[in-house]
Predict the 3D structure of the following.
Amino acid sequence: MSSCDIINLKDVHIVIFESDYKLTGYIASVVEASKDTYGSTIMAINRRDGSLSVRGDLALYIKEKLEKLPYIEIDGHPGFMGGKIKYNPYAFIDELAKLI
């Protein structure tokens, strides 16, 4: 976590990190529960494998917006989404900023 990037887009906090382990769901949940971001929507992205997790009230809204991008796979249920970015995560952030 000490070497991750944190990007704030309106009501969504995006945490980008790099790991060999599948930690996106865990990181998104921990960051969402912290006192500084409690009640916010969190998106965690592992730039090594392109996996992503979304936690929070805006998860369905984000899923609806991301389904428009052909290189994103995302699914889940209210409050909890998971998926895969099949493209550069930083280019994805630029497109996400335009969508939300």
In short: The chain has a mean pLDDT of 87. The chain has one domain: 5-94. The CA atoms of residues 41 and 60 lie 11 Å apart. The first strand starts at residue 5 and ends at 9.
